[in-house]
Amino acid sequence: MTMIKTNKRMILPIKLLFIAVIQVLLTALITYVLVTNEYRELSSQSLDTLEHFLVEQKKQELKNYTALAVLAVDHLYQTSELDNDVAKKLVTNILDKMTYNGEDGYFFVYDDKGNAISHPKQPFRIGKNWWELEDGKGNKIIQILISNAKAGGDFYHYPWTKPSNKKISEKIGYSVYLEKWKWMIGTGVYLDNVNLQLSQLQFEIDEHINKTKNIILILALSSIFVIFLFGVTVNLRQKKQTDEKITELGQRIVNVQEDENRHIARELHDGIIQILVSIKFSLEATKMHLSKAVQEVPKPLQHAEDNLVIAIDEIRRISHHMHPQILDELGLSAAIDTLSADFSDRIGVSIKVFKPRARNLLPDFINTTLYRIVQESLINIEKHAKAEHVEISLSFDKNWLTLIITDDGKGFDINSVSEINDCGIGLRNLAERVEYHLGEFSVVSSSKGTTITAKIPKSSFENYFNQTRVKNNDNNGDIEFGQ
């Protein structure tokens, strides 16, 4: 089974909306990349600056702590002899007790040969030589610290066990040299706190970047939604106006065609047919005159009369097909009866017509639309359906005027454009007529037959009913819907 049903489709300029959406997306993407890169670059610079500041601050603290340590033992160092063991012992005792930053700030002492003299946090190193002690990269830690001390004091980054948590952490050490005793006094601070601060700051920066990304994304999606909504609204309004104009223009064309058909049909019926009938009477009078004169009627005369009768019947048929006068004079119901009876007599198909018992007169534009649907349907049945029975039902309920035409023919393929276009004025044309009255038009076809349904809402002609009812009441009479 195939089915065709007409409805109004929304056609939007998708390309324009697509271009606008792409532009917003590109703008959002470019903005995101530029803002993110700029933000990351500024953040990286800020982190580098902060790291440099914190490290420099630590270095300055180391210098200050070392200066205090040297100052604390300077009176012993300056007044002692070269190898005064008592003075050295007193100095190491003082340095062992000088701590800062909890457990992690302390001083250590090595001689220029790498022997550990003092180390309050790792006493197992005292008395042993650590000249070859290396870090993970192969750098000689003690040798570098001694070299920096001899150079007048310098800094060195190296990994070392942090006393407070017993874990290896990055440490920055500073060392000075006591020339008389050949000692290197050093200290250092662990940078894990600095790294923790930098990591926390980096996390906050990433959070800000993510928030910025979300804001840009939300703005982009909001812009796309607003553009789409605006585009849909504008185009729906434009489409509605365009559809109204097209529908109005189409109906004007239909009305002009119907008026022209009505005019031609009237001219044929009242003009040409009357002339031909007059000629027919003249020919009949001539035949009667010849009969009275006991003369044989010439065959050309008889042939002319026969052809004239055929021409009159054909012109009447054409006139009735273009616009039946009975539709204007007696209404839709009588016109459908006449059309159905003529169709049944001509091709021998049984037709049943079901009409409502209503006492209302439909407006001409509704009568014409429904009559054309019946007319076109019967033409199509005659040409294509090979049907034996046809039913035409016209009903009028509370909200709808419904016309249903059913046949038991072979049906046809609704999707076949060529077949549909071959059907007289065409199903599409009929559908547009119904849609103009805000109605619904559908065709259902299968091998068991075809059903055409046209529904027109009461709202499309109720004002006409109201005006007619007032007029009828004034005239104290009723106008029949049909006979």
TrEMBL record:
UniProt xrefs under InterPro entries: HATPase_C_sf, HATPase_dom, His_kinase_dom, sCache_2, Sensor_HK_TwoCompSys, Sig_transdc_His_kin_sub3_dim/P, Sig_transdc_His_kinase_MctS
Any one GO CC term of the record: plasma membrane
Keyword set includes Ribosomal protein: no
Entry GO MF terms: phosphorelay sensor kinase activity; protein dimerization activity
SUPFAM superfamilies given in the database record: ATPase domain of HSP90 chaperone/DNA topoisomerase II/histidine kinase
Key words, A-Z: Cell membrane, Kinase, Membrane, Transferase, Transmembrane, Transmembrane helix, Two-component regulatory system
Keyword Membrane tagged: yes
SMART domains, per the entry: Cache_2, HATPase_c
Residue ranges of domain Histidine kinase in the record: 370-460
Residue stretches spanning the membrane: 12-35, 215-236
Top-level lineage group: Bacteria
Name by which UniProt lists this protein: Sensor histidine kinase
